[in-house]
Each structure stands twice: as structure tokens, then as C-alpha cells.
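quick one if you have a minute, typing this from the bus. theres a chain ive been looking at and ive put its sequence and its fold in C-alpha cell form underneath. please have a look and point out which stretches look like helix strand or loop to you. anything you notice is useful, everything is just below.

***
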Amino acid sequence: MFTYLIVFVSTVFGWLIQGFLGIGSGIIVTAVLIFFMNIKTVIVSLTITNIFGVSYLIFKNKVSNFDYTKIILIIFTSIFGVVLGGYSLGVIDSFFIKKVFGLMIIFTGLYDFGVQKGYLNKFRLKSNFLTTSLVGLIGGFFSGLIGAAGTIYALYFNQTLEDKKEFKLYISIVFLVLLLVRAIYYVADPNTRIYYDPLFIVISIPAVFIGVYIGNLLTEKVSNKIFKEIVSISIILMGVYITVSNY
């Protein structure tokens, strides 16, 4: 039972961070629970609980000026990227890719921080067809290959959206679609279906709502400018974690 207490506490903390920033729960919760549970059980079961988390974040951050065209394009290219990434998983050394990806994310975060501080403002990403398509394709590819792509989407939305609520809304919608695709795959595949842990899911769901509620309240305490800089720093930290954990 101690293990499931850890599940509850780590899920609350992970989703407090994601409730605040819109990203982070996957890395935080997984990093804690791999010491207590089978990693495949964690990844597969989290797919279900995370669907509840991002859905609640979407509900809490609704905006009136929602751009359907931008989100449809990035979702479509992301799904295509997931297929490519999933195929590549069988032919590419994913351990090596994770190390390269981690280093790439560190530099991505440093670049984004420079943009947010105004030092690299002329290199800010543009919200156009080409950029949006590439972000979706690259994000989906790494999601399918190594299960980690939130920082790619965070970089894009952090530079193309001004409001913190919009940032959390758009990135949560992308996460929701990717989670649904993964959940359908895990259920359909008998090799992954066996790793669903019903008790894990039941315990995690209320923890998700508690974490999101508190984290979302914290978002209201900071300005859009400070929020965007914190997102940049979190991208760097996630890159450091991915790099270090694969050496």
C-alpha cells in the first residue's frame, strides 16, 4: 500500500507543476515511480490518468478567441509524426536519441529564454503554416520515438501566444489528442494492455484534480512575462534531466 501512497503524492506534485505551467507531470511522476513500480506499468497507466489531467486543464483555461485552424494543423502533423516516430522506434537506437534530444532541449530552452528576455527577439518563431507544421511533425516524432515531446510544443506556444491561459489551453489540447492516440494503441495491443493497473488509475485520478486545481491557482499569481520565463527555465531543466538520466 505504501507504493500507492507514493503514486498519489507524486501525482499530486507532478500535476501541481503541470497545472501551473502546462507541462512537466509526465517527467516528474515517472522519475519518482520508476523506483517503486515497473516502468511499463507507469507509462501505460499514466496515459489514462493524464487524459483526465489535461481535460481538466482545458476546462479551467477556456478562452473566447480560440484559433481552430492553428490547433488542427499542429494536431494533424503531430499524429503523422507519432506514426513516423513509432516506426523509427524499431530501427533507431532510442537510447542514443534520448541523449541527443536532451541536449537539444537544453539549447532550445536557452534560446527561448533569450527570446523571452528580448535578447533574441528577432529570432522569435512565427505562427505560420510552415513553422506550425514542422513543430507538429517534430513533436509527434519524438513523442512516438521516446514518449517525450512536451518541450517542443512548449517552445512553440511560448513564443507564438501572449497569454498564459492560452498557452495552457493549446498545449493541453495537443497533449489530449496524443494521449488518446497512445491510449487506443495500448488498449488494442495485447503486449501493452497487460500493463494497465486499475488501482494505480483509481488512486491517481483524484490526485490529478487536486494538483491541477492548486497549480492553476498559482498561475494566476504571476504575470504573463514571468510565466513565460518560468516556462523557458522549465524547458532547460527538463532537457538536463533527460540528458543526465540517459548517461
